[in-house]
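FORM 12-B: Structure-to-Sequence Request
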């Protein structure tokens, strides 16, 4: 689901109401962070709005922990579905999934956009999408879902490889990697803007 923001917006003060066009309202919202401390300002600024044909939506990113082998298969397009035990909620508002290669690499290596998300039993997911999972052994796939009645297949769209891997601990104070994935704001967008990325094609 998308969260719509329809202009104009109203800000209520003690004895009057100020109606602002969306451009000024958005700037007011950002500047309000100065009164709430740098952390709040940063969050307000990076929780930026993106526009489609009809509405304004709040976008976010997902930081996903993944083994380097699986990340490489994703970024080489040999793998077109990522499998998880937990659903990514509000996928329509996710701008991109950021790939964090877990230990021993512990660096960000690229990203992809979400296509469709399919839920089903592990048996159903393997039967329909196992060939696109990057996993050769059915037993390994089923072992991952041991004890689970349902899983999720996330379609990988427009994968992008970072030309230089990023160590997030050098750029983000208090960074801690997720066990599986977590929702993050625009601090990672700033990292991607400072580092070159290359789109991946099926021939890579």
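FORM 12-B RESPONSE
SEQUENCE OUT:
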């Amino acid at each position: 689901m998308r969260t719509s923001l329809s202009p104009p917006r109203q800000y209520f003060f003690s004895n009057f109401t100020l109606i602002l066009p969306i451009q000024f309202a958005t700037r007011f919202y950002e500047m309000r962070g100065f009164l709430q401390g740098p952390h709040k300002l940063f969050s307000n600024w990076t929780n930026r709005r993106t526009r489609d044909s009809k509405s304004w939506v709040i976008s976010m990113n997902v930081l996903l922990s993944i083994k380097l082998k699986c990340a490489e298969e994703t970024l080489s397009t040999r793998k077109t579905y990522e499998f998880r035990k937990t659903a990514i909620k509000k996928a329509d508002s996710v701008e991109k999934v950021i790939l964090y290669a877990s230990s021993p690499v512990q660096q960000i290596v690229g990203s992809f956009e979400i296509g469709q998300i399919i839920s089903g039993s592990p048996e159903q997911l393997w039967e329909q999408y196992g060939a696109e999972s990057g996993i050769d052994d059915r037993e390994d796939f089923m072992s991952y879902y041991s004890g689970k009645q349902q899983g999720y297949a996330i379609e990988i769209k427009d994968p992008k490889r970072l030309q230089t891997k990023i160590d997030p601990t050098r750029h983000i104070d208090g960074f801690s990697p997720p066990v599986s994935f977590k929702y993050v704001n625009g601090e990672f967008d700033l990292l991607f803007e400072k580092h070159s990325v290359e789109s991946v094609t099926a021939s890579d």
